[in-house]
Amino acid sequence: MANKRDLKKDINYVLGDIIEAVYVWEYSNTGKDTKDSEAIIDEAIATFDDLIAKVNARDVENKKSHFKAINEELESKGRALIEKINKLS
Prior knowledge:
Layout: H1 4-28, H2 35-55, H3 63-87
């Protein structure tokens, strides 16, 4: 893990790209209901808030393992959100 700033950037880029992908889907499917896609955006924003709060936690004993766990959580939640985008119909 490089540092806290890089982890924050990764969180921002990954979840920002996911939200952007949802907007692209909504734009290309204007006749379809956007309730499910808006739920994905809300989940991405909640995930962002949760991960940033974990990054900013100061009462961590082992920072390296803490940041590694956050990075792994970002990957797993990001993949889950991407799967939800792919299932939109």
